[in-house]
Specification:
It is a single chain. It contains 5 helices and 11 strands.
Length: about 230
């Protein structure tokens, strides 16, 4: 990530009592956030991803007593507690490929948001691309607390307004010995910033703030857009 998205989420959740991270993945964002809030609940539809989250906690000896991990799909939230901050980070809302799914998701947040609580959503800013890479390409290489590495490869296949994205996560030990692979396939739909903003307003939310590239740039050629809202 060429922008400090982790620092951005830390700033937004600093000192919060109860935080919900939707789409926690392997804990890249959730673990740092858990250190600045009182309680973090992380949900993800992928059990293998949450197992890697748990493994990171064990390897880093990070405080885990304030973290609860739950296998759950964002499209069918079934949580009883309320939160004073909810975020769906790293443009994960783009995985809801039908606008009606986004509207239903936003509506579902109302029942689990504390009074005066806030919601943070971010999206990829759509680009007009003449050619999408259809071969497997290396997306990133990230260090693991164990001294090992996590490599992510991706392949994109356009299908009309939807992009089918295959990702391959390869985990290596500190000696660079291959340990395991996790394969995922997902479909994403680009949404324009004004679309997301209008969906929040239509659902009864008031806008508190807007940022480009996690507060590190302007709208000119921005790659990411974030928006924070509260119930009106």
């Amino acid at each position: 990530m060429r922008f400090d998205d982790i620092g951005f989420y830390i700033d937004r959740t600093m000192g919060k009592d109860s935080v919900l991270e939707i789409g926690s993945g392997t804990g890249r964002i959730g673990i740092p956030v858990s250190k600045v809030c009182n309680r973090l609940v992380g949900i993800d539809a992928s059990l293998p991803m949450l197992l890697m989250f748990q493994q990171k906690l064990q390897q880093s000896r990070a405080m885990a007593s304030n973290i609860q991990l739950v296998v759950m799909d964002a499209r069918s939230l079934a949580l009883q507690q309320k939160f004073d901050y909810i975020f769906f980070g790293f443009s994960s809302i783009n995985y809801l490929t039908d606008p009606s799914e986004v509207m239903a998701f936003i509506q579902s947040l109302k029942s689990i948001l504390q009074v005066n609580g806030r919601v943070l959503l971010d999206i990829f800013v759509p680009k007009e691309l003449a050619v999408l890479p259809t071969d497997w390409t290396l997306d990133y290489v990230r260090p693991l607390p164990s001294g090992g590495q996590l490599k992510r490869f991706k392949q994109i296949t356009p299908e009309g307004s939807i992009n089918v994205i295959k990702r391959r996560y390869e985990e290596y030990s500190a000696t660079r010995t291959f340990k395991r692979v996790i394969n995922t396939e997902s479909r994403i739909r680009p949404y324009r910033p004004e679309e997301l903003k209008n969906m929040l307003i239509t659902s009864g939310f008031g806008i508190c703030g807007e940022w480009w590239n996690y507060g590190q740039g302007s709208s000119d050629n921005a790659a990411f857009f974030s928006i924070e809202a509260t119930l009106s």
